[in-house]
Amino acid sequence: MCRLLVVKSEEEFNIEEYLDKFAKSCKNSEEYQGHGWGCSYLVGDNHEPPTPKHKLNWQHYKNIKPIWEDNLTRFSRTKLLIAHARSAFEDKNIRVENNMPFHDNKYIFIFNGELRGVKIKEQGRIGAEKIFNYIKRFNKGNLLEALNKATEIIKKRTENLKAMNIIMSDGRKIYLSSDFNERPEYFTVRIKNENNKLIICSEPLDNSEWEKIPNKTVKSFTIFEQSNKIEKPEEFL
Q1: pTM for the model
Q2: Separation of alpha carbons 122 and 108, rounded Å
Q3: What distances in angstroms separate CA 207 from CA 10, 177, 210, one per listed residue?
Q4: Rounded to an integer, what distance in angstroms lies between the CA atom of residue 66 and that of residue 225?
Q5: For residues 99 and 84, is the Cβ–Cβ distance under 8 A?
Q6: Fold classification of 3-236 (topology level)
Q7: Which of 66, 154, 191, 215 shows a CA-CA span of 20 to 30 A to 3?
C-alpha cells in the first residue's frame, strides 16, 4: 500500500533532500509505489505562527510518474512538507487526480491501508477520498475528535480492515490515526525528532533509530506556537 511522509521543522529545510530519501525508500519498498505521487508544502513568510484567521499559503504538486523518476530539484524550501507515494488498490483508477495529498481550502489529507466491504455513504472518486470527506462530516471544530469518531465508525462498518493510516494537517496541527490488523512491520508508522525537525513516515528513511507509533493511536501535534516549538501531542487513549 501507499507510503507517507511528513516533515515539520523550526527552520526552513531543503524539500529535495527529504523527497529524495522518500523516493529511494519508495523505490525499494516491498510493494510497488509507482502509481504516481504528490506533495503539499507551505511557502512564503506566512508560514510563521499564524492567528486562527490567518490563511496559510500551500503549494500542491502531483505527478503520475513514480516519485523516483520525477525531477525533485523543482522544489525549494519549507517548514512543513506532506508527501504521498501511491500504490493503487488492485492497480485500478491510476489517474493523477486520484493521487494524494487530497486537500480542500483548509485541510491536507494522506492515507495508506486497505479496507474491503466498507458500508458508508460518502462522495469521492476512490476510497481514500471518501474517508477524507467522511472525517470532515464529523468536524464541529475539533478535528481530532472528528478523526477519532469517523475512524471508529468506519472500523465497525468494514468487513475486512487490513490497515487504515491517516495523516491530516491544517498547517497548525498534524493529526494522525494509525490502525492495522495485519503486517505490523509494513503498516507501523514511524516518527523521529532530529535537529529541531519532526519526521513522520510509513517506514524509516535511514538506518538510525525511529520510534514506532503504537497501533490504535489517534493523536495530534501542535506545530505553531509563539515559541515555534512542537508541543506535547494531544492523544486519545
Answers
A1: 0.91
A2: 18
A3: 23, 25, 9
A4: 36
A5: yes
A6: Glutamine Phosphoribosylpyrophosphate, subunit 1, domain 1 (3.60.20)
A7: 154
